[in-house]
Write a structure and sequence with these properties.
Length: 301
């Protein structure tokens, strides 16, 4: 009798506003699923969902907010952010700091609504929809993206007549662009989780991940102020885009991080660079160890 193939465990990535009062409807939805919802100042619960909530800020979300406010990345984080270490990846990320008031309200919310609405975080754009990615933990399992609905007791938006599909809602809220711009970064988190869950990186590597992810000005200075362009074969057209376009700069940072952290060949080296690096490494070893054989390195005389 043949044994049944053991099913691989699954891992769920969730995009949703995390709040203790949230009630997740246990139904998997698709982009074509329909729901009634509308939020506007005349709804009795207007802005009630903008307090006591954990809002993560992926790189593009943070970029949009700090550009809106005219702040450098470190200034924005100092004024509005907290740095948290994710449990499963042990990577440092930025979350939005709530006000120190009774409601723990968002720093950008007023009775009239959101003061940064056009540049609000993606999690706010999705609400009341949540997105999840179900992944097989084996290499061939692939992924299954789906949606779900979050209902809070106080929310009256579901009583409105406006009917949407989830696809229409995402497009109307501008969530598609945010998903596209943060996808490369999310893939880094998922890869770290699946290939080294619970195994911390050295502090210097975590600092590199953090600075290159969230401080686009720092990464731009790295690209144009170091030997970066002497090492990597980046087309001239792309170099100009990276120089002037923060979204192109973010995409390049994701590629470089995958190469620096996981040794993936996401960026092409210029001809002769690897050979030159090997020669330099060999020369350094020669200076340190002289003519000693490899097997004797580290032996005590």
């Amino acid at each position: 009798m043949s044994k049944k193939k053991k099913e691989q465990p699954e891992e769920i990535e969730v995009l949703s506003k995390a709040k203790k009062s949230d009630k997740v409807v246990p139904v998997k939805l698709t982009k074509d699923s329909r729901f009634h919802f509308r939020c506007h100042p005349k709804v009795r619960c207007f802005t009630a969902c903008c307090s006591n909530v954990n809002i993560a800020l992926p790189p593009y979300d943070l970029l949009r907010l700090r550009k809106r406010l005219g702040l450098a990345a470190d200034e924005f984080i100092k004024q509005y952010g907290d740095i948290q270490v994710l449990d499963k990846t042990l990577f440092p990320v930025v979350t939005l700091r709530m006000r120190d008031d009774e409601k723990k309200s968002c720093p950008f919310v007023t009775p009239e609504g959101c003061t940064v609405y056009e540049d609000r975080p993606n999690i706010c754009r999705y609400y009341p929809v949540g997105m999840a990615t179900l992944r097989k933990l084996d290499a061939e399992g692939g992924k299954d993206e789906f949606y779900f609905m979050t209902r809070e007791d106080h929310c009256k938006g579901f009583e409105e007549e406006k009917l949407w599909t989830i696809g229409e809602w995402r497009q109307d809220q501008g969530a598609d662009l945010y998903d596209e711009m943060n996808r490369g970064w999310m893939e880094i988190l998922i890869k770290k989780k699946s290939h080294g869950q619970g195994k911390p990186f050295p502090d210097i590597k975590n600092e590199m991940f953090f600075k290159m992810s969230f401080d686009s000005d720092y990464f731009r200075a790295f690209v144009f102020g170091s030997t970066f362009l002497e090492i990597y074969d980046i087309p001239a057209e792309r170099i100009e885009k990276v120089r002037n376009d923060d979204t192109e700069l973010l995409k390049l940072s994701y590629e470089w991080l995958r190469q620096a952290i996981f040794a993936e060949e996401t960026l092409k080296f210029k001809e002769g660079v690897l050979e030159k690096r090997k020669a330099q490494a060999d020369a350094t070893m020669q200076k340190v160890y002289g003519d000693r054989e490899k097997g004797s390195v580290g032996e005590i005389d």
